[in-house]
Amino acid sequence: MAILSKKDTNLILDPLADNNPITIQVLGICSALAITAELQASVVMAISVIFVMGVGNVVISLLRNVIPSKIRIIVQLVVVATLVIMVDQVLKAFAYELSKTLGAFIGLIITNCIIMGRFEAFALGNGPWRSFLDGIGNALGYGVILIMVGFFRELLGSGTLFGMPVLGDPIAKTGLYAIGYENNGFMIIPPAALIVVGIIIWVQRSRNKALIEEA
Amino acid sequence: MAINTDKNGYTVIFASIMVVVVGAILASFASGLRPRIDENERFAKQQNILYAMGVNENTEDSGVNFIPTNAVEAEFSKYIKEQYVLDNNGEVKPKEEAYLLDVKKQIAAMKSGKDAELPFFIGEKDGKKSYILPMYGKGLWDAIWGFVSLDENMVIQGVYFDHKGETAGLGANIKLRYFMDDFNGEYVMDGNQFKGVTVAKGNNDPLNENKQDYEVDALAGATITGNGVSAMIKESLSLYKPYLQTVINN
User: Are residues B169 and A67, on separate chains, in Cβ contact within 8 Å?
Assistant: First the structure.
């Protein structure tokens, strides 16, 4: 017997491609723009969101029958905020270096609309195990796009990956820079993320025509 | 039995319980972890001060490598010989653990003429004295801060910069080694005149060969952060002028 039933597997796999929160549902764009100038920040953000979404979805799912519907959005917000503050404190205490590089990003998790979206659309109506898988799946789908965007923006914008130079030294003119290549400063600023996300959406829809909405 | 979650009374009770539970969780987290967080912050400060005076684990091509956390306390007491504070009247007093003072508050107090204690430290490495001063200013989005280490001729021995929220890939690069290394060897005084070091666009010296031009090459795309660094150096160091003057005169 497989560990996950087919339905459960789809909960994880769907958001990675055909129901991706960023490229298909166009949620979570704000943080995708803000933090993807560097690959490291993208990876760290992806991991943090996986944690917050996995745990948050389970908490909301466990409470789904007792949450008063009138204040459910507030309750969801409180759950996300609490988890985020806990992550922040634990990082500060046990991984101080990492928490410094994360700085403002941790707080940004609270504003991630994918998290609220999954609480509202899935965890409120499903059991904890399925909610957990859904949370992990959507966070992975978000993370994959984040890392792809971060990869291209850091490579083309700074000529580095994870802060390590991969194209040569732009000041001493070595490597690619010796033959006249220049870093594209535009890639560093947030609008470039929109363009990269746009290209990913384009590639994805041209490979799978079923994703194209009717006009 | 299903609970009627639509009743107002239930909503109020739920909200109250939620607030108490969440408050308790967060409070216990915060107070439980506080000692560890404080210790981490203290170590980080020690690492930054040592970094500025050139005590670090950088190799030729490496990035910024601090003294490891488990060794920093011992190294700090080995290299930092004296800690002082400078008050509003230009008087210098020794003070233990001066490095733990909140530089932001002290600089603000000094500027507004309230009682202030600006910390600074004297370090000694390979028989050479260095005077390490904290700095605090603002970048594009938020605070920037750092330490600068000067020798008795007012030549920079090393700097450390950090920031709260400068743009990743642009202003955030002030804490990268290639930017900080540019300051090494720069003069901050021209004779008796205080010059500081300006982060300058178009100084036509990208490899920073001229050390007496009071300029380092700016970061592309980070004009405001660069201006913030220039202003921070100027403003912070000028607060220490009464003391630096005595160093020069000796």
Answer: no
